[in-house]
Amino acid sequence: MTTSTASTELRARQDAGRKTAQNREKWAQARTYISAAVILVWCLAPAYWMVVTAFREVGFTYDTSVLPTHVTMDNFTTAFDTSFGNRFGQALLNSIFIGIVVTAVSLLIGVFAAYALARLNFRFKFLVLGFILGASMFPGVALITPLFQLFTNIGWMGTYQALIVPSISFVLPLTVYTLTSFFREMPWELEESARVDGCTQGQAFRKVIMPLAAPAIFTTAILAFISSWNEFLIASQLSSDATQPVTVAIANFAGAQPNQIPYTAIMAAGTIVTIPLVILVLVFQRKIVAGLTAGAVK
Amino acid sequence: MATELGPTPATKPASGGTPVHHAPKGVGEDNQILSQGKWASWLLAPTIIALGIVIVYPIISAIIMSFQKDAGLDPATGLFTEGGPAGIQNYVNWLGQQCAAPGGGTVACPPGTLGGQFWNATGTTFLFTAVTVLFETILGFWMAMIMARTFKGRSIVRAAVLVPWAIPTAVTAQLWLFMFDFNGIINKLFNVSILWTGSEWPAKWAVIIADTWKTTPFMALLILAGLQMIPAEVYEAAKVDGATAWQRFRMITLPLVKPALMVAILFRTLDALRMFDLPYILTGGANNTTTLSILVINQIRQGFNAAAALSTITFIIIFLVAFIFVRFLGANVVEQSGASGKGKK
């Protein structure tokens, strides 16, 4: 009698314990989903507001209904309209051109440095790494004053090269250290096999390593392009109306009335500038994951 | 930068493939280092030369300029002032907030002039840096902890986090300017009527909130990378030993994620100290939201040499902060960046 009550009691307690554990588990799951939802809203709501406003009629700029209302495509036409002195279309082309040149130059130069830093043993290696990292954290304002004077003196103000050359100062270090950490994770045994088979170090680099490194280089190229695309400080000082990139065009966007900021058109311009970037970033995210899992499998 | 100051220099893996530092060096190995060194210098030369042209050269010329007087019409007297060596006068002027006096010499800068804004701008810069980095660290850590869990839709959250990061700062600034408008969504949402960019503290908060939104993802992703390097077995073992969630966080997560966290904080701090785009577009530097970078930009057209002195001061401030981080707080940037991802084989 006593033993059976004891065992039922024990089972009841165990059941209760299991239930609390289950409840706790469920509660933890729920909290995770609530937190995830909060993160989603925090990150996406402002971006969503930009897109919704971009599609709203000018007269309803300050409409605060959450869903799209008074939908129109006019703002996108206004964004490209040049009658108020805005040159958004030209600025888009400028940003693309500057971004491509800066990215190409940085990759062309940086890929060799990254290879050396990831693969070779030499003195002062940490000093070089430190210098490059320091360069990437360098304040843009420390460069702008002498460059402003120099470019004024040699007639470079407002030219493309006046925007491209300073951009290399922060895109190149970024390129080198991103590539260096990618290169460190690559299957370098293949290089050694190629060398055993009679390739020189240069041939091994060209024929074996370069094809393997292509995804890493592609990812780095996207990062480099984005950082060039987002640059504002240097461009705001050294560009002209003809060469200004999108960031400057959007910051200085003018409306029909001088005292009224044409928000809907600016949001349309912002949407145009941002959407390709967001798409690029999602692609780049997948590349990174693929690169990491490839490294883990070996 | 001090590279050997990491928390555990003794366990540092030999860099690169060949373990040169472990075995006593033979003649062949010495030759190998020598030839690798030769290769390395050829491969590194283009980068070093390019950075020399775009960074080292401007820095040196900025320093030289900063010891020169600005030639031009004196705004106070209307007389032409000659250029020429100025000694440390430009620096003295900024630090002491002194402006050229009509009869020669200097007087305290009248309010409203650029020269009188140095300490205000420095204070604002440090305030923005401290508050935004604090918010970003707390929020970023929390986001990273959530993203490190396994749940359905995790990949969506990880992708969404990249959206604020991917939007150019100039667009972010215009977007928040619109949302902070008197008739905008934020006043409506929280049922308040604040002229956000119209007075000092709302303007400062506007910049801080917008910057936190924009840059927390960067922080979260760096911390997430650190979290993912902690093996799950460690947590299992601690659970078996009866450690509470708080104990696990304090005794395992925090110490193990610390190297990645310190680097993330260092990167964000240095980035925040040079903050320009956001306040420049959002508030135009009005209502005491002028950062050091904005002050330099405003000064450029009033005199290169004084601007060069100010940009050199800004550079020194940022350098000192970086030095303190690396030297005293154990942020080992070089090794962390080298060993990011997984440990080397």
What can you tell me about this protein's structure?
The complex is a heterodimer of chains A (298) and B (345). By secondary structure, chain A is an all-alpha fold. Chain A folds into two domains: 2-60; 87-252, MetI-like fold. Chain A has eleven helices and no strands. In chain A, helix 3 (88-119) packs antiparallel against helix 8 and helix 8 (201-229) runs antiparallel to helix 11. Chain A starts with a helix and ends with a helix. Residues 289-298 of chain A have low confidence and may be disordered. Chain B has 345 residues and is an all-alpha fold. Chain B has a domain at 127-290: MetI-like fold. Chain B has 13 helices and four strands. Chain B has helices spanning 27-66, 89-96, 118-148, 154-166, 169-179, 185-189, 200-228, 232-240, 245-273, 277-282, 292-300, 304-328, 333-338; strands at 72-73, 80-81, 98-100, 106-108. In chain B, strands 1-2 form a two-stranded antiparallel sheet. A two-stranded antiparallel ribbon of chain B has the order 3-4. In chain B, a hairpin with a 6-residue loop joins strand 1 and strand 2 (80-81). In chain B, helix 3 (118-148) packs parallel to helix 7 (200-228) and helix 11 (292-300) packs antiparallel against helix 12. Chain B is globular. In chain B, 42% of the residues are buried. Chains A and B meet through helix 1, helix 3, helix 4, helix 5 and helix 6 of A and helix 1, helix 3, helix 4, helix 5 and helix 6 of B.
Could you write a compact summary of the structure shown?
The complex is a heterodimer of chains A (298) and B (345). By secondary structure, chain A is an all-alpha fold. Chain A is built from eleven helices and no strands.
Binned strand content of chain B: under 5%
Strand order of the largest sheet of chain B: 1-2
For CATH, the homologous superfamily of the largest domain in chain A is named as MetI-like
Helicity of chain B, as a percent range: 55-70%
Mean pLDDT of chain A: 85
In sequence order, what are the helices and strands of chain A, one letter per element?
HHHHHHHHHHH
How many DSSP helices of chain A? Answer: 11
Average of per-residue pLDDT values of chain B: 82
The span between the termini of chain A is 63 Å
How many whole angstroms does the radius of gyration of chain A measure? 28 Å
Class inferred from helices and paired strands of chain A: mainly alpha
Main sheet makeup of chain A: none
Shape of chain A: flat
Secondary structural class of chain B: mainly alpha
Task: Classify the beta-strand content of chain A into a percent band.
Answer: under 5%
